[in-house]
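Please produce the structure of this protein holding zinc ion.
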Amino acid sequence: MQIDAHTHILSLAQDPEFTTEYGREGSLCIYRSLGLLPSHRPPTEEEWEASGYSRKGFPVIGPDESVRDHPGFDKIVILAVSPQFLDGELIGTVDTYGITGVPGPPTPEKCNDYIAAIAAARPDTFIGYASVNPAYRGPAAAVRELERAVRDLGLQGLKLYPMYQDWSPADPVIAFPVFEKAQELGIPVMVHQAGSTRIDARMEYARPALLDAAGRHFRDLRLTIAHCGLPWVDEAMFMLTKHPNFYAELSYHIASVTTEELLRFLVHAEASFVPLEKLFFGTDYPGFLYDPVKLRAKLLAVNEHADRVGCDPIPQAKLDGILGDNYARMLGLLQD
Ligand SMILES: [Zn+2]
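Below is the modeled complex.
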């Protein structure tokens, strides 16, 4: 089974211009490192246009586009982004162009309704994750929204974004009620516990080790560390060693390494007591450089470097596991 465990859909701000600006801020370092933008001063509008990050034709990804860009995949996990402020603007998953059929004016407050509508229309393809922000209207409101999203809307997991929303996942007052409710509902949780190129994101709340408190208190909670905790990949991997119910997905990390480095990472993970069964393929589609087809090919090509690295090839069943079977087992879609 092939599953992309980390994707997004729709827009991140009601205003398409703002969505473009937001995307440009997060992509600036990538475009600069590729030599597409000047590195010593802010790019001009013309330079942005010439770089390929055009204001015109910035694509809005709906369900059709996501399926088109995931040929051969059986399931696509779509993660809601809960309401949060960026430069005074309320952002989060929003259906700016009304493609989900959710009634009323578009607003990030309905992020879970949008994701649920897409998942309900194609339940064989999309696995919808809710998102709540306990710092937005308080933890009690977040817990109520999570309950509604799972019981009424049928969403199957929860995505959290502490560093973007100015709260710590180790905070017993803010974070624990949300983890507690997720555990009670029996849903898996994915946490963006990794760095971010968004300037206002708080790195002090980003480290994977901040999930240790949740791991100690919520022993039945299935918790996935997004992006392998990049740049603290070893720290994230150690959390997987320590906590039986912790997992990690590869997006962002897999885009930043060569195929040979990916093999070295997998060999090192296993040698550091992280069963490869705890790793999930993910892409962060539709982010730049995060093409599901290319990243899948990279994962499946790691053994071509086994001689150079001087290791045994990774058994195909383990690579297939990372590509989707591991996630399917975690979610209960596949039985052992
Ligand atoms: Zn993401």
